[in-house]
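FAQ

Q: What does a record look like?
A: Structure on top, sequence underneath. For example:
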């Protein structure tokens, strides 16, 4: 029986090592003006299929529930948090946990689509996301002109945030050497999605990685960027309005690799062989 016992111990040790090697990741949802009950399982599936993460989900109490003040996931257990949340402001304890862990570089953050609509009155969050869905007085606006030059519109001038175009659009990489997108095509066609425009915020310590030309605003809007907050790393994409948009293999790769980068500062997850091209979208079944 000794060989069998030894084999069982070896297998158990192997499984334990594999679990310990995975990056602990938390998705926060529970309130959103989008269908988080449909999109969180897609995000969870993307991240689990990568084999890189151990994924858990923390669902907040619903809107209007006083229990939200006590909602306090144990963030220190995780290396990165993926936000699929757009709702009422968290309680002070969770806000404090979030600010301190991110600022100390102990917690990476991934902001997905409508999560950049959240927490307009939370200054530190506005700094973390760089820019988000805000009124025209909610900070500066950043876009690129046709020559690829960055243009800033001061707070109070121009339009507030919107999605003046919805449909398929091309994502153009502006820093193809950034670890999150390195190896991806310089341009790739994304499936039908809301193309956020006129993002507003402090736009401080951001690094713009990708844009998309909006037929609504006639300029190149930010679509992929990172933000430094203290020692913390934040990865932000307004892509991913619904489950169909999230099934785009370009989106999936960006989320996998962006999550690993936010957690570790490095990317080891490969770009999939099946990837959108400049002329053709590619989606998971």
């Amino acid at each position: 029986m000794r060989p069998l016992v030894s084999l069982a111990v070896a297998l158990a040790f192997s499984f334990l090592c594999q679990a310990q090697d995975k990056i602990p990741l938390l998705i926060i949802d529970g309130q959103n003006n989008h269908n988080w009950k449909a999109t969180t399982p897609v995000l969870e599936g993307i991240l689990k299929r990568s084999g890189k993460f151990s994924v858990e989900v923390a669902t907040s109490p619903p809107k209007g529930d006083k229990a939200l003040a006590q909602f306090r996931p144990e963030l220190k257990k995780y290396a990165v948090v993926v936000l699929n949340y757009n709702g009422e402001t968290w309680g002070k304890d969770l806000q404090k946990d979030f600010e301190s862990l991110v600022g100390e570089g102990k917690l990476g953050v991934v902001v997905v689509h409508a999560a950049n609509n959240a927490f307009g009155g939370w200054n530190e969050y506005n700094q973390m996301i760089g820019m988000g869905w805000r009124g025209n007085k909610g900070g500066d606006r950043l876009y690129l002109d046709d020559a690829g030059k960055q243009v800033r519109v001061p707070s109070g001038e121009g339009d507030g945030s919107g999605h003046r175009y919805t449909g398929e659009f091309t994502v153009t990489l502006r820093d193809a050497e950034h670890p999150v997108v390195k190896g991806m095509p310089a341009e790739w066609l994304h499936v039908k999605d809301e193309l956020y425009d006129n993002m507003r915020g402090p736009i401080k310590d951001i690094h713009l990685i990708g844009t998309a030309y909006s037929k609504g605003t006639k300029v190149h809007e930010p679509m992929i960027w990172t933000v430094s907050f203290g020692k913390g790393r934040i990865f932000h994409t307004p892509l991913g309005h619904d489950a169909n948009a999230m099934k785009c293999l370009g989106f999936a790769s960006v989320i996998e690799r962006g999550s690993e980068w936010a957690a570790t500062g490095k990317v080891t997850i490969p770009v999939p062989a099946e990837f959108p091209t400049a002329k053709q979208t590619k989606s998971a079944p």
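Q: Is there anything notable about this one?
A: The first helix runs from residue 2 to 21.
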